Amino acid sequence: MNYWNWKKLTITLFRVAIGWHFLYEGFSKLWAENWSAAGYLSKATGPFDRFYHWMASSDSLMKVVDPMNMAGLVLIGLGLFLGLFISISSISGIVLLLLYYFAYPPFGGDIFGSAEGNLFIVNKNLIEALALMVIVLLKEKGYGIYALPIFKKNAKGEETTTVEKPLEAGSSRREALKNLATIPALGIMGWGAFREASQFGVDTLSGATIQVGGADIKQLKGTLPKGKLGEHEISRLVMGGNLIGGWAHSRDLMYVPALFRAYNTEKKIFETLMLGEKAGINAINIGFPTMDTINKYKKMTGSQLKVIVQVAPDNDLKDIYVNINKAVDAGMDIIQVQGNWCDWLVRDKKYDVIHKMLEKIRSNKITAGLGAHTIDSFIETEAQGIIPDYYMKTMHHDQYWSAHPRENRFPFEVDGKKHLDHNRFHDNLFCLYPDRTVEFVNRVKVPVMGFKVLAAGAITPEDGFNWAFQNGADFICVGMFDFQIVNDVNITIDTLNKLKGRTREWYA
Known about the structure:
Layout: H1 6-31, H2 38-42, H3 49-57, H4 59-82, H5 86-103, H6 113-116, H7 124-137, H8 169-180, H9 182-200, E1 203-204, E2 209-210, H10 214-217, E3 226-229, E4 232-235, E5 237-240, H11 242-245, H12 256-263, H13 266-278, E6 283-287, H14 291-301, E7 306-311, H15 322-329, E8 334-337, H16 339-347, H17 351-363, E9 367-372, H18 375-383, E10 390-394, H19 434-441, E11 448-451, H20 461-470, E12 475-478, H21 485-498
Parallel strand pairs: 5-6, 5-12, 6-7, 7-8, 8-9, 9-10, 10-11, 11-12
Antiparallel strand pairs: 1-2, 3-4
Helix pairs in contact: 1-4, 1-9, 4-5, 5-7, 16-18, 20-21
């Protein structure tokens, strides 16, 4: 088996693999619509963050940086893959990788930590840079175009068309074919990559590639309308956080929460958020535990997604402000008192806690919302003179077969408890008194965001969206898997375009 020099072949495969990574990253950015590194650079951390922020802040500079980044990735990739100008390509690759490395250095907290493993000092960019350094230092470069006779020079520096040792014609041809083998390999891999991008679409970060269902995006029917919530202009369809956080109202199907969490890995969450933004959804309402994940997504992508976070008092610390302070420090755009907690505090007549929490949020110049499942919570807080900047209320009708019988409904019972008694609440109804909810919503003078509009999957989007908007909701908050997003956006657009029967003024 002397046909291949196995040491040479191994080096070739090593070089080609790195080259393909560069090449595909470059072409992915070229294929992505309106790709820019500005978001990535604007959130840079580490000792040189000001340099990266400076680049991102200049539109004229980014018009140079973006094409150079894409061209650099492609040219470096081609050089390494085909074996042409290998040393120059390797050194250029090292420089580019170090620029990526110092944009988000893995010390003092790495935003890529859970996406690529637990990292400290050493990450993929550094390893790949070191690998390229090995290629630079190795005398043997493997098979490649560089080794063809046309690129060799004699002692006088003149090009020659012969190899150093006289070879038989057949042997010479075989050697030439070996050095040209990467060309058809590039063609095959390039064809596959093109098919992949054509089918799924490609969105890229400087360090990784995230794929989004691009084919679905083409099915959008228009632009998602927006409204004002405080100083923020947000889409009338807001993404909910339950499916991302793994909180499933699955009745007695105990495996469903685990299934949610298994499907929505961090990578899938990021893909879902990115697809939502592409479809026109620019806001998400999340539970407090999901805050770090969303912030990580925003740092990695440069996303401008508006984040509404739900906060609650800390019983262990007996501190009603601690989670508000954490949300403020984390840069949340809008903060609201969580729905169950509002219900419990009203039930226990602790109106002062709700008032103090809203005022604490407002003292930070942040829009303050109040959530609830039971309409009595809002009726009683209003009677106490407590008016939030907006209400977030469960809004759905009860005309579905699994709805809890009206005679068995009790205020403040939507609290997460699971009762063995079939006549008690068992997680299948969230707007206990739809008529009273509609009456309240239609007389208040602040924006209203409806949530649980599908009764956790018991009502179709066409029906649930229309009912909520028709009965006064200014926004609706809906949990969505990635494969539901485009359809939900289209239904929202159709619903608002054809809406009839709404009598309440739009307060947002």
